[in-house]
Amino acid sequence: MADQPTPLFHLAFPVSDLDETLTFYRDVLGCDTGRSSDKWIDFDFWGHQVVAHLSPEEAGKSSMNDVDGHAVPAKHFGLILEWEQWEELAERLEEEDVDFIIEPYVRFEGKPGEQATMFFKDPSGNALEFKAFRNKDQIFAT
Predict the structure, then answer these.
(1) Are 15 and 54 in contact (CB under 8 A)?
(2) What is the CATH number of the domain that holds 102?
(3) Hey, is 91 helix, strand or coil?
(4) Are 78 and 28 contained in the same domain?
(5) Beta strand segments in 10-126, E
(6) Residues sharing a CB contact under 8 Å with residue 95, sequence separation 6 or more, in sequence order
(7) How many folded domains does the chain comprise?
């Protein structure tokens, strides 16, 4: 499979308000939009297709797990960015006064798998994690 292009992922997730979702993903995260209706919106999530579906009763539900002393939402999605992209996004989110579940920080500093990570929620309460690795060859390092 190494000779094949990396597949793109598709993710559909529930939201409680399409207008708030559009503003957050487009204006705060910088995602372009694709097709939409009065029930859903396609977003270009760094080249991947994510679709926000209007479903207020399902939006934002997740339990928490302890990971390295932080309460991490068990249900979340996000991306592994390049280090500089991660820093730029963290700065943009701070400028937009986004409330972090877990503030931007570096885990495993100086060790295999060193990574920057941050968690925050969209307006519907869906948790997102963005991270970056110093060395992408160590994404699955133990």
Answers:
(1) yes
(2) 3.10.180.10
(3) helix
(4) no
(5) 10-15, 32-36, 40-45, 48-54, 64-67, 70-73, 76-81, 100-107, 115-121
(6) none
(7) 2
Parts of the chain with a pLDDT under 50: none
What's the whole-model pTM score? Answer: 0.90
Residue range of the domain that includes 101: 65-142
Helix ranges, 8-142 (H): 18-22, 83-95
**Tell me, what's the pLDDT at 2?**
63
What's the token pair of residue 9?
A: 């992922």
Residue 73 burial by CB count (10 A; 0-12/13-18/19+): exposed, middle or buried?
buried
42, 84: one domain: no
73-113 pLDDT, tens digit per residue, is: 999 999 999 999 999 999 999 999 999 999 999 999 988 88
Instruction: Please return the burial class of 46, using the count of CB atoms within 10 Å of its CB with bins 0-12, 13-18 and 19+.
Output: middle
The reply to whether 12 falls in a domain is: yes
CA distances from 101 to 17, 76, 117 (A): 21, 12, 11
Say whether both 131 and 83 belong to one domain: yes
User: In Å, how far are 7, 60, 86 from 64, measured between CA atoms?
Assistant: 29, 12, 24
